Amino acid sequence: MDFFSEVLQDPWKIVAAFALALLVHSLLTFIKTPKNAPPFYREQPYIPWLGSLVQFATGPREFLQRAAKAKGNCFTIQLFGQQMTFLSGSEGHQHFFRAKEKSFDIREAYAMTVITFGPGVCYDCPQSKMAQQFAFFKDGLSDARFIEYMELVQDEVATFFDQEWGDEGEADLLQSLSDLYTLTSSRCLLGEEIKKRWKSSGMAEHYLALDHSFVPILFFFPSLPNPHKNKCINARKLFTKIFQEVIDERKEKMKADSDYKPPQDFLQVLMEAKYRDGKSLTITEITGILVGILLGGQHTSNVTGTWLMSHLLKEKEWLEKVMEEQDSIFKDKEGKLHPATLSFEEVQKMPIFDQVLSETLRLHPPFFQLSRAVKEASTFGDYVIPEGHIVNISPGAAHRLPELWGENAEDFNPSHFTAEAKKEHKPYSWIPFGGGMHQCGGRKFAWNSLKVSLTWLLRNYELEFVGKGAEELPKEDYTTMVVAPTSSHTRVKYRRRKNA
Ligand code: HEM
């Protein structure tokens, strides 16, 4: 009988083998940790190898804030045997965002995304190819492009609420916004032809498989089998087939009719894009990138919209200010609200709404934590962050630090973002969209579409939250890909405004 068969026959031997493995792991970690490594933070109960999992899983923000209070702006915790170093505060964030890719590697930290986006896309590319792919976003998601998208977004918003909500009723706001932003993104980014086929071709159903494929444990063990892998492969096969059909149709039309102007959507941007060596993107790359932006934009936007409404409808002082601003911009001479399409310039004239949106993203940044794999030891102040650590920053925890946001950092106060107040912000203190070379490529698209859709909703409907806990603000749900408001707190009752 070999050693392993013998061990498996006796439960005590299994326990002993496990204890031995933990001891070896702890010893190796101790030996590998240099003297000037960041201070280690732990609380009881501390479970070997799992480390601070209990505290982190049950209240990550509070846990990181306690750690920062005890150890300062650079400390290490352990999760699943992995040393996780957190940097916080203005200097900590600067160090994180300004590091070179060869020191702090985003690709290894987000290796799990290959299941969803497919091979050879975004984080599954050599560094220079990844940078070129992300540069395509800059063109496709810029303000200049959004001017083209304005009419499409507003048309989708009005049609969606007419068809799905009607004049009065009840709905789950989080779900409604999620459905809405899939429609606006698919119309502007994937194009009209895809949007038409979205449900009938089965894309909508397969999209759900891609959406469910982010399993948090795979962040630590990207090589573990992902139960959604086959569904994702099938979904991408279908998406690839349909994107190819649409691309061929557009090319045919261009050949047949020299006056034909293809739609100016993100699909077209990718069809025309070229790498530095002159090569076009493959259909697999186009598919993966489009899936990536659809997923990247949808949940981040719907949770932001729901948090914003939760604050406004419960803290009426700011709702009144927002409505006054809307009235001053959009009411016509008869006192009726401007009903039709707004221009891009009009949407830029909403300083109060901008403040409310910025404050919502301060208190509820959708991505709780951003991570990189340390490939080269990196000196921060008196410490050296060793190779092999995962280095992180947490917008979710940092945005409530009194040192950055004052003693009342926990309160909803959009005055944090008046033009005057912004001058006092420390560098990299407001980081819902990240920073540095990987700053969110879709931030302008997200900002504009949130403004267009949420102000439209406020101008056209009276809303109130209903159900158990309707009076309170939702709690944070950390089990989803982005930090969502707890679904028990997202039901609203609505009635169309008389003057709308
Ligand atoms: C409120 C909405 C959004 C928030 C808060 C948000 C936040 C973020 C953050 C924090 C990152 C950086 C991740 C890191 O450094 O590890 C990021 C990256 C990115 N986001 Fe967003 N995002 C939003 C909406 C969108 C939308 C609508 C799109 C596309 C239509 C998008 C596309 C991207 C892309 C392409 C990247 C990767 C950039 C890179 O790595 O170079 N995002 N986003």
Q: What does this molecule look like?
A:
- With 500 residues, this protein is an alpha+beta fold.
- The protein has a single domain (33-496), classed as Cytochrome P450 (Cytochrome p450).
- The chain is 54% helix and 10% strand.
- The chain contains 23 helices and twelve strands.
- β1 (74-79) and β2 form a beta hairpin.
- The chain is globular and about 80 Å long.
- It binds protoporphyrin IX containing FE (HEM).
Poorly predicted runs: none
CATH uppermost class: Mainly Alpha
Question: What CATH architecture do you see?
Answer: Orthogonal Bundle
Question: Radius of gyration over alpha carbons?
Answer: 25 Å
Protein name: Cytochrome P450
InterPro entries: CYP450_sterol_14alpha_dmase (IPR050529), Cyt_P450 (IPR001128), Cyt_P450_E_grp-IV (IPR002403), Cyt_P450_sf (IPR036396)
GO molecular function, one term: heme binding
Pfam families: p450
